[in-house]
Design goal:
The protein has helices at 2-8, 15-59, 63-66, 72-87, and strands spanning 98-103, 116-126, 137-147. The radius of gyration is 27 Å and the shape is rod-shaped. A three-stranded antiparallel sheet has the order 1-2-3, with helices on one face. Helix 2 packs antiparallel against helix 4. 48% of the residues lie in helices and 19% in strands. The protein is of the alpha+beta class and 151 residues long.
């Protein structure tokens, strides 16, 4: 009686291994893509906060200091240092980020009181998950402008 059962039943051995082999790339992508997307959002949040903090600092400097040609470039450097300090936690890869601080669309030279201060940060983020298979780099930009509020 046992022989009849064996001959009549279809062979099922190894099908689970084949199904796993077929579905494994899809499962890996379903795991890695949310991790990559989370990393992108984290990088963007960090550069956005760094740009906001630097622009906020620059917009609240007293007008007497911003109108001083000897002092204004140093204050712009302090705003850059504020952004640099926050961007040190990022690991964007081989590319260094770009950081531009401007007053009324130009350099903060201090010859007049600016109406608008702006901080622009640009980061090229490399893919760490598929670095051996793709050369995916993503450009993230934070551009923050504040009206000058110094008194």
């Amino acid at each position: 009686m046992r022989r009849a059962d064996r001959r009549g039943a279809p062979r099922q051995r190894g099908i689970a291994a084949v199904e796993l082999a077929v579905m494994m790339p899809v499962l890996i992508l379903m795991l890695v893509f949310p991790l990559y997307l989370g990393r992108v959002f984290w990088h963007y949040t960090v550069i956005q906060h760094a740009a906001q903090d630097a622009a906020r600092y620059l917009s609240k400097i007293p007008a007497s200091e911003m109108a001083n040609p000897l002092r204004a470039p140093d204050l712009a450097k302090v705003a850059e240092a504020i952004a640099d300090a926050q961007l040190t936690e990022l690991a964007p890869g081989a590319f260094r980020y770009g950081l531009v601080v401007t007053c009324d669309g130009g350099l903060c030279l201090g010859f007049n009181r600016p109406a608008v201060v702006r901080v622009n940060i640009q980061v090229l983020m490399e893919d760490i998950f598929f670095s051996g298979y793709t050369s995916l780099t993503l450009s993230l930009t934070a551009d923050v402008s504040y009206p000058y509020m110094g008194k």
